[in-house]
Design brief:
Blueprint (H helix, E strand, L loop, with lengths): L13 E6 L10 E7 L6 E4 L2 E2 L2 E6 L2 E5 L9 E4 L3
Length: 81
């Protein structure tokens, strides 16, 4: 079997905890996201707004900087999975 006729499923990322869970509406809070399959993250969003920046520390941890916003929002990590 050659590589050209194979397909690889990539596990979707999951977030199991966020710390801290709140910050100022002006943004700038460093938030640690813990979960699984976080390697290769291409985006981190807070309620649809891109994090100011993020670093993939490991397959189970990302550090992201929260953007400005308000209310309670979902945090999402995008990977190839």
């Amino acid at each position: 079997t050659s590589v050209a006729d194979q397909y690889t499923f990539i596990a979707a990322p999951t977030i199991t905890s966020i710390s801290p869970t709140a910050g100022p509406t002006t943004g700038g809070t460093t938030v640690t996201l813990t979960g699984t399959n976080l390697s290769g993250a291409t985006a981190v969003t807070f309620g649809g707004t891109a994090a100011t920046g993020f670093t993939v520390n490991s397959a189970t941890q990302i550090t992201a900087t929260a953007p400005a916003g308000s209310g309670t929002v979902d945090v999402r990590v995008t990977t190839a999975g």
